[in-house]
Design a protein that fits this description.
binds nicotinamide-adenine-dinucleotide, Rossmann fold, 7-stranded parallel β-sheet, alpha/beta
Length: 258
């Protein structure tokens, strides 16, 4: 129960990595606030988790400072404060660069980058007031570093998260608030099944570039979030940790099985 007594906000908690993270923190003893635009799903998950779980409907594509403050206020009303924020909600849009719609570019930045910025501000203000430090974890991606031709908005947003994390980290560590990011490789969630793993050819290509020879499980990302928010990670500040099965390291001239 390494997070007993803590209050954790997780965005995008209706499914995938957000749900796995909320479940992991709950199992570790924390009280959790599940935030998502899929209200029915977060309600069901919060009710299933029981006592130490509440939910909140929020469309983070329309996030403002007021909305971010409401998210943090929900944690204060339900559990008396906030100790951990997991900025996990994310979206992707795929189109060739020259055809990429402006609205899609803006939408991806609003959900993936602007909402974490505003929620990070709101959570940090509350943590500073509380005076007991805290942890903020931003969900990045290997696409913070790697480029995919039809994924400009997503790659830009995740590259932005890397730097948002760095700036927040150096700004907030004097308040004992540690900010870090997680940059997963390919993890089997709905987002991945409906985008980069949509065809068997794409699946085989991804596995041919993944030394572990398999995709990751959501629980393998949740465990990194739990670690980063714990005292075991007390000297890790402003880092992006890449749980990617070795993807980023593999020399592109070498096939996985050589
Ligand atoms: N799955 C992967 O392989 C992978 C790899 C790298 C990074 N990531 C990142 O991890 C995070 C979670 O990804 P996932 O695979 O679990 O995705 P997912 O699509 O399965 O889940 C995303 C969740 O975010 C919510 N969401 C989307 N738009 C929202 C909005 N406007 N307001 C509130 N909630 C919103 C969705 O309703 C959903 O519950 C994302 O930031 C994604 O970019 C995932």
């Amino acid at each position: 129960m390494k997070h007993a007594g803590k209050v954790v906000i997780v965005t995008g908690a209706a499914q995938g990595l957000g749900l796995a993270s909320a479940e992991r923190f709950h199992a570790d003893g924390a009280s959790v606030v599940l935030v998502d635009l899929k209200a029915e799903r977060v309600r069901e998950h919060a009710e299933r988790l029981g006592d130490r779980a509440v939910w909140l409907e929020a469309d983070l594509s329309a996030c403002t400072a007021d909305m971010a403050a409401r998210v943090v206020a929900k944690a204060a009303e339900a559990f008396g404060g906030v100790d951990v924020l997991v900025n996990n909600a994310g979206v992707i849009h795929l189109d060739d660069f020259v055809d990429f719609p402006e609205e899609a570019f803006d939408w991806v930045q609003r959900v993936n980058l602007k909402a974490p910025f505003l929620l990070g501000q709101a959570a940090a203000r509350a943590m500073i007031r509380q005076g007991r430090g805290g942890s903020i974890i931003n969900m990045s991606s290997i696409n913070a570093i790697l480029a995919i031709p039809n994924s400009v908005a997503y790659a830009v947003s995740k590259g932005g998260i890397k730097q948002l994390t760095a700036v927040m980290a150096v700004g907030l560590i004097p308040h004992n608030i540690r900010v870090n990011a997680i940059g997963p490789g390919t993890i089997l969630t709905d987002m991945v099944k409906s985008s980069v793993m949509a065809s068997e050819t794409q699946r085989q290509t991804i596995l041919s570039r993944t030394p572990s020879g398999r995709c990751g499980e959501p629980s393998e990302i949740a465990s990194v979030a739990s670690f980063l928010a714990s005292d075991d990670a007390s000297y890790i500040v402003g880092q992006t940790i890449y749980p990617d099965g070795g993807r980023l390291l593999l020399d592109y001239t070498v096939a996985v099985k050589d």
